[in-house]
Amino acid sequence: MDKFVTRQRKRSAVEADEWKTEEPFKKYKEECEVEEEFLQKIEAEGLDCDYSLLFDKEEGDHLFNQLEEELEYFTGIEGTFLSCDKAKLQVYGKSYSVPRKQATYGDEGLMYSFSGVHLLAKPWTPTLEHIRDAVTKATGHTFNFVLINRYNDGHDHIGEHRDDERELDPACPIASVSLGAVRDFIFRHKDARTGSSKLQIKPVKLELAHGSLLLMNYPTNTYWYHSLPVRKKVKMPRINLTFRRIVKNRQKTGIKLV
After folding, report:
1. Residue 241, helix vs strand vs coil
2. Taking the model in full, what pTM does it have?
3. Distance CA 171, CA 238 (A)
4. What does the DSSP assignment read for 20-83?
5. What residues contact residue 196 under an 8 Å CB cut-off, 6+ apart?
6. Model confidence at 169, in pLDDT bands (50, 70, 90)?
7. Distance of alpha carbon 146 from its chain centroid, rounded?
8. What is the pLDDT of residues 100-124, one digit of tens each?
9. Which helix (H) or strand (E) holds 96?
10. What backbone phi and psi angles, to 5 degrees, belong to 97?
């Protein structure tokens, strides 16, 4: 890692007290809003990320439990969203089970495509709207879609990939919110994957904490792959929400649910 900058964080005037009321998902009043600065700036060659704790433990626990009740995960069967099975994707013409549960939510009509799978967004839930609004407040960016991955334990994982699909707005960063178990998150430069490059670029390893927000700014997904590797010692579940902005006229047509 070439740079690692720590900044002081400004606290919201409202904090988590709102969660103790009967209306936990209402927006903060404008007069109480205070934008937060990110705790850490993470930079390397072509990598630009910001990292902060967005929710404290109490609020993070509450959000995790609410999502466990609200979310409906994709099973790979068209029109069916159940929480018991995992989806499949296509890689070089072969079908593989996804080693985690997935769900997609967002504005009406939005669809996200990757690895031969096209996933239509379900309507926002109250909890997802609350998290989305908190991310917008912290980053200054608006998002219309979220891809959710649920990792049951350290055996569930995601391999190296880049979030560079054509339907994503290149001017908008990807905001990744982590709830639950702390997991390692690894960045690896594309030139370090082939073995043919003369550049010796070291991987960047982060520990994504419960309630944290990682903002992946441009051009990170152009040059760096990222992964969440297997960690067998991790016994607890983790929910990861990656908020994105999809440009409608760039979406692929047709829905292929495997």
Report:
1. strand
2. 0.77
3. 28
4. GSS-TTSPPPGGG--PPPPSEEEEETTEEEEEEE-S-HHHHHHHHHHHHHH---B-SSTT-B-S
5. none
6. very high
7. 7
8. 899 999 999 998 876 667 788 999 9
9. strand 94-97
10. -70, 140
Predicted local distance difference test score (pLDDT) of residue 211: 98
232 token code pair:
């067998």
> What is the full DSSP assignment across 98-130?
-SSEEEEEESTT-EEEETTEEEEPBPPPHHHHH
Closest CA to 227 of 175, 165, 162, 168: 162
Contact between 237 and 148 under an 8 Å Cβ cutoff? The reply is no
CA 154-157-162 angle, to 5 degrees, is 145
Cis peptide before 237 (omega within 30 of 0): no
What's the DSSP call for residue 11?
P
Amino acid at 88: K
Q: Mapping DSSP to helix (H, G, I), strand (E, B) and coil, where does residue 190 land?
A: coil
- Cα dihedral across residues 197, 199, 205, 206: positive or negative: negative
Q: Which residues contact 32 (CB under 8 A, 6 or more apart)?
A: 12, 13, 14
Q: Name 225's bridge partners.
A: 188
- Can you say whether the dihedral through the CA atoms of 6, 213, 156, 234 is positive or negative? positive
Q: Are 186 and 229 in contact (CB under 8 A)?
A: yes
Quote the pLDDT of residue 97: 54
Distance CA 37, CA 101 (A): 32
Cα–Cα distance list, 139 to 87, 132, 238 (Å)? 31, 11, 23
pLDDT for 119 equals: 83
Provide the pLDDT for residue 178. 98
